[in-house]
Amino acid sequence: MGKFRCPRWCNCAPCFRAKFVPDHDTALQPLPKPKEAEESDGLPFIDAKEDSDILIIRKIDPCIAINGISHHTSQYELMNRKFEPQLIVRRGQSFRLDITLSRPYNEDKDGVSFIFSVDDAEKPNYGQGTLVAVPLLKRADRHLSWNVVVENVVDNTLTVLVTTAPDAVVAKWRVEVDTKIIDDGAYSYSWDTGIYLLFNPWCKQDQVFMKSEEWRDEAVLNDVGIIWRGTANRMKPVIWKYDQFEKDILECSLYLIHVVGKVKSGYRADPVRVSRALAAAVNSADDLGAVMGNWTEDHSGGTPPTKWLGSKEILQKYYKKKKPVKYGQCWVFSGVLATICRAVGIPARTVTNYSSAHDTQSSLTVDYFMDEKGSIMEELNADSIWNFHVWNEVWMQRPDLGRDYGGWQAVDATPQELSEDMYRVGPTSVFAVKQGEVLRPYDGAFLYAEVNADKVFWRYAGPTQPLKLLRKDVYAIGKQISTKSPGRFDREDITSSYKYPEKSSEERTTMLKALRQSENLFSRYYLNEDFNDIHFNFELRDDIKIGQPFDVALVMKNRNKVADYKIKVILRVEVVTYQGKVGDNVKKEDYNITVKADSTYEVKLKVTYQEYAKRVVDQCAFIISCLATVEDTKFEYYAQDDFRVRKPDIKIVLRDKPVENKEVTADIYVENPLPVPYKKGEFTVEGPGIEKNIKIKVKNDVPSGEKAKGQFKFTPPRTGRHTIAAKFVSKEIDD
Description:
By secondary structure, the chain is mostly beta strands.
C-alpha cells in the first residue's frame, strides 16, 4: 500500500488518509477489509497487523431528535422515516454524532479523521469544496472551516460535534471515518446514512442569515400560506400548501438544482446562483423543468392551474417521472419555487403585483394602440398588463453587488422573457428596483417595468398617419404589491419596498433615472395639460357577486358657465385573462350626448348575468373601457379599468374538536349565487392526514340561493396548526 500524507493544515497523525496534492481531482484510496470489522454496520476497510488493537467503529447514531430540534429540521419526512432515516442539518452549525466503538477511545494512541464528500459529485475534490477531510480534535481550530471535536467519551461510546462551514456546498453528503493506531494499522468506516446539508438562516455567517425571528419562522418553516390573485379592486386570497417537509420534496429540490439547473458542485454553496438556476428549472420552457405553463382554456392531458391546492402533488409527480407536470400559471410557478427554496433553507415568500406590466422592449413603458372606435388593436400590441402577477422573494446578502443591496431579492419562474438564454428573472435586489438602478444584475429593468412602467395610449389611423397621443397614465402600474403577513393569515402591503409613493417627486425622479440608463430608443411623450372645461370621471360599481348584474358609469362635469358641449362616448366591457389578454366582447354601447353649461351628465352601461355568463374566463375578470370625444374641441379622453366579479367562499365546519390521531368529521358547503342551478358539483379537499385528495360529489342539482353540501373525515397526524384547503367546481362555476 502507498503512503498517505495529511493535508497541509494538519500537523497531527489522526488525519492520515486524506491526500492533499497539487492535483485536486485525485480521489481517496480505499483501505482493505479486516476480519474484526465484520460485526460493524458500515462498510469497513483495514490495513493492520494481525494482533493490532485498532479502533473499530460498530455504528454511528445520527441523534435525529437532538439534531432536528437544534437545526429546525425535525419536520422533514426524511428525518422521521421508520426505516433508514437520514440526517438533515444546516451549515455553519454544529451537530452531534454518537459513535459506538469496539473499545474505549484513547486520545493518546488513537488517530481519527472524518472524510466528508458530496454524494452526487462525479469526482469529489478539495478545490470545489465537495471533499473535506477533518481530524478529530480536543477543541475547535478556528483556522479550519470544518471542525470535528470530542464532546464526550463514555465506555465504548464517543460523542463528537461536527461543525460545517457556513459556506459549505448544499447537497447530500457522505461520511467516512478513518481510525488508526499511531505507527500501526489503518481502518476506514463508510457510514450508510446520508447527511443533507442545507442553507442556514439562523447562522450569522451564512449568506442567507435572517435576523427577524418571525420572518424566519414564516419564510422557512411555515408549510402553508396565501397567494393573492384577482385584481387590485377585488383581491382574492388563495390557500397554497407548500409542504416543503413532505416525502420526496427535499430530494426533488436538490435534483432540480444539480441536474436540471446544472449548478456546478462548488456553486451550490451560493444562494444567488442556486435561486437563479431554480427560477429556470421550475418552468419547462427551455429544459425538462418541473411545471409546464398553459395560458389557454384547453387543459386536456393535465390539471388546470386553478385546481392545484399546493406544491406537494406537483413535485412528487415530477420527481417520480422526471417529466414536466401539466399545467401551471404564475401563482403555481411561484408556489412551487417557494416550496423548493424553503426546503433547501433559503427564506422565500410569494409576492403578488396587481396591474403588473410585461414590457417586451425594455422601454419602461406599456404602449396600447387604439382604432377610431376605441377598440384596442391587439395585432399592434406587444406589451401587456396582467391583472396580477405572482413571483417570489428570497432573502440573502448580495456580495456581488454590495452591502446595501442585500435583503429581499425578486426571482420569477414564470417563463416570460429570456435572461442569459433561459426563461427566468432574478435574483433582483428589491432595493435596487426602488432606486431605479435597472442595470444591476439580474434583470433589473424587467422588474422595474413590472412595478413602475408608464402606461401610454395611442390613436392609430393607419401606416401613413402619425400616431396621436390619447393619454398617459403614470399611476396605472404596480398596485397593492402583496405578500402574506408573518405568523398571520393577513395581507402585508409591500408596495413601498419596490417604489416611492405615486405622485411623489421621488417616484418621478427615480423614473427619469431609470430611463437614462435604458438603451431603448423608443421615444417618450407626455400628455398635454388637462382639458379645462370638461372633467371626466370613469366609475366602476364594484363588489359584485357572480350572478348579479353590474354597471359602468362615465360622469362628465361641464365647468364652463356658458358653453354647451357635444360629446360622443363609447363604453365597452370585454373579458380578459389575468395576464391582460383581451377576449370576447361582452357589451358595447355608443352615446351621443350634450352636456349643458355648468352641469353634470352621467351615462351608464348596465350588464346582466345573462350577458356575461357564457363569456367568463377562468378568473371572472373583465376590462372596462371608455372613449369620449368632445366634438367641438376634438379633445379625447380614454380610461380603462379591470374588474372581477366575486365568487362565493367555501365554508368548512368541524363537528368535533380536532385531536391528534383521532378521526374528525367535517361539513363543507358553498352557496349558489347564480340565477341557475349548480349541476354536477364536486368538492376537492386536501388536509392533515389526507394522503390523496378527497373528491366529494354533490348528488343533486343545487338551486339558486341554496347550498352545495358535502362531508368528509380526516385524522390529524400531529398536534399543532393545520390547514384544510378545498376547491369546488360544477358545470356553471369553477375555481
